[in-house]
Design a protein that fits this description.
Helix content is about 30%, strand content about 25%. β4, α3 and β5 form a beta-alpha-beta unit. The strands form three sheets. A ten-stranded mixed sheet has the order 8-7-9-6-10-11-12-13-14-15, with helices on both faces. A six-stranded mixed sheet has the order 16-17-21-18-19-20, with helices on both faces. It has a five-stranded parallel sheet with strand order 3-2-1-4-5, with helices on both faces. The radius of gyration is 22 Å and the shape is globular. The protein has three domains: about 90 residues, Rossmann fold (3-Layer(aba) Sandwich); about 200 residues, UDP-N-acetylmuramoyl-L-alanine:D-glutamate ligase (3-Layer(aba) Sandwich); about 140 residues, Alpha-Beta Complex (Protein-Tyrosine Phosphatase, Chain A), CATH 3.90.190.20. By secondary structure, it is an alpha/beta fold.
């Protein structure tokens, strides 16, 4: 297996296949800051790619073996297949290669401490919260975020070698290639069933993640999550539990919500009142996210006053319950939720200030829609009208195993009015004719459904 020491490596010319990805681009920025020669390719141009180019990366649009020239090492994402011309060329010519997760794991070795945020739901929001705290602290941290955050002007912040913060995705066991000193487990739920065989397989994978945390580090876990509790050994000494019950080391009491659904609570650590915490994001799930963020930064040496102010200034990452504005008296919100648990949490956190709620949902992947079809049918309670678009395929191909009309039937069977509308243009036409002043349009999904809100704003201006 290849090893990569960022400060001593002989690999000086590094090529990224799929460099425009949110995580890949962050790694490329780290290398550029260390004066590596970075090249890459992606299928489409984007703001992320233009930012990399402005920092000195040479990037090709489209994948072609001609893009690889004098390359010492190739980094690729799990979405890249063996038929990719650049991947195939590297194999044929024995060019060293490393997948993204392994490469990130090697990068983590170069930092004194590293925080890895894991869990089925809430990774980006929690990493964003921790980022907001760290940028106001004395720690000059390096941050890799799975979304975009205004306080770091994008998805990456370059700091010194003291601390690295990153998300840790369980898909294909990718986070098992990491080297964290602080690990967070927000929750464990059924997802990515195109890879995992079921909840026990998922729990076993998280057990392996726990084993990565050294005894000198900290394991921060949701003490109220039954699946998380199942995998924590009673002999484990460095466990910090957070949650809403008083049995946890960090817990929230006297929880209140304002009209917008923003939470506040009294923070207790080891049964001692510490301070009142105010959030500018909605819902109980974000109270839990904030508790894990408090624990992770507190054990990393950040003072409570800095943590408190960092949380107050956090208004969410882009595409996580993002306020897209009000047009013609109609509120538009976008959220990345693509799992029934996430959708239910998002919708339940909406304040009681709208006449009608219109939810435009774009299912994400066929396998997830098929395996969780019943659960998806039950998670839209409280919505006045659900518009379901065609399924966003992402990495999959349509084999006919499921379609959006089946999901619409499930939603209707649960007493919520739902309709299938195939194209974004037809969806816009429906909304323009139906939605009125005082209503809410919320677009939900991990694909490109957010474009509907942007297009609606343009029409109404």
């Amino acid at each position: 297996m290849l090893n990569f020491d960022i400060d001593k490596s002989n690999y000086k010319n590094i090529h990224f296949i799929g460099i425009g990805g949110i995580s890949m681009s962050g790694l490329a920025h780290i290398l550029l800051n260390k004066n590596y020669t970075v090249t890459g390719s992606d299928m489409n141009n984007s703001n992320i790619i233009e930012k990399l180019r402005s920092d000195g990366a040479i990037i090709h649009i489209g994948h072609n073996s001609n893009n690889i020239n004098d390359v010492d090492l190739i980094v690729y994402t799990s979405a890249i297949g063996e038929d990719n011309p650049e991947y195939a060329f590297a194999k044929e010519n024995d060019i060293p290669m490393m997948d993204r997760a392994t490469f990130l794991g090697e990068i983590m070795r170069g930092y004194k401490n590293s925080i890895a945020v894991a869990g089925t739901h809430g990774k980006t929001s929690t990493t964003g919260m921790i980022s907001s705290i760290l940028v106001n602290s004395k720690i000059d941290s390096t941050i890799l975020l799975g979304g975009e955050l205004d306080c770091i002007d994008g998805n990456v912040k370059i700091g010194n070698n003291e601390l690295l913060l990153t998300e840790a995705c369980e898909y294909r066991g990718n986070f098992l290639k990491f080297n964290p000193t602080v690990g967070i487990i927000l929750n464990i739920d059924e997802d990515h069933l195109d890879y995992f065989t079921g909840i026990e397989h998922i729990k076993d994978t998280f057990k392996e993640f726990i084993d990565l945390i050294p005894n000198t580090g900290s394991l921060i876990v949701n003490g109220d999550d039954s699946n998380v509790k199942d995998i924590i050994s009673k002999d484990r000494k460095n466990v910090i539990r957070f949650g809403l019950s008083r049995e946890n080391d960090y817990y929230a009491d006297n929880i209140k919500y304002d009209k917008k659904g923003y939470g506040s609570f009294d923070l207790y650590i080891n049964n001692e009142f510490i301070s009142n915490i105010k959030l500018n994001v909605v819902g109980e799930h974000n109270i839990l996210n904030s508790l894990s963020s408090i624990a992770a930064t507190y054990v990393s040496g950040v003072e409570i006053d800095v943590i408190k102010s960092g949380l107050e200034t956090f208004v969410g990452t882009h595409r996580r319950f993002e306020d897209k504005g009000i047009v013609s008296g109609i509120q538009i919100i976008d959220d990345y939720a693509h799992h029934p648990t996430e959708i239910k949490a998002t919708l339940s956190s909406i304040g009681d200030i709208y006449k009608n709620i219109y939810c435009v949902f774009q299912p994400h992947t066929y396998t997830r829609t098929k395996s969780l079809l019943k659960e998806f049918g039950k998670c839209f309670i409280g919505v006045d009208q659900v518009i379901v678009t065609d399924i966003y395929a992402a990495r999959e191909k349509d084999t006919g195993i499921v379609n959006s009309k089946q999901l619409v039937d499930e939603i209707n069977n649960n007493g919520v009015k739902s309709v299938f509308i195939n194209t974004f243009e037809e969806t816009l036409d429906f909304l323009e004719k139906t939605v009125d002043k005082g209503d809410l349009i919320i677009t939900v999904g991990a694909g490109d459904v957010y474009k509907i809100g942007d297009m609606f704003k343009e029409i109404k201006r």
